[in-house]
Write a structure and sequence with these properties.
The protein has four helices and five strands, in the order βαβαβαββα. 42% of the residues lie in helices and 27% in strands.
Length: 103
């Protein structure tokens, strides 16, 4: 699910665990990460997985101090729990999500 506004973003992250992928269409590593995000979105029924295009929502990316992409931030009930940059394995993201559910 791609988020298209800051209001939509705040609504999505305010409850539960949400993994947010800050990306850009022109970013090669972001394209490499896309299948992993799609897999997580279809298999992690306990979490929301959303994408934020930094070219569309640059202010939001700036507010969260996204300095490189891809950057993935895990939120729980609207608060940042963890973040990572670059392309990681699906196991890494599952680990982060599991930790967020236990927090």
């Amino acid at each position: 699910m791609v988020v298209y506004s800051e209001n939509e973003f705040r609504e999505v992250i305010k409850e539960g665990v949400t993994l947010v992928d800050f990306y850009a269409d022109w970013c090669g590593p972001c394209q490499a990460l896309a299948p992993v995000m799609e897999n997580l979105a279809s298999t992690r029924t306990d979490s929301k997985v959303v994408k934020v295009d930094i070219d569309v929502l640059s202010t939001l990316a700036s507010n969260y101090q996204v300095m490189s992409i891809p950057t993935v931030i895990i939120f729980k009930d609207g608060k940042e729990i963890s973040r990572t940059s670059g392309v990681n394995s699906i196991d890494s993201y599952n680990y982060f999500l599991d930790g967020a559910h236990k927090a």
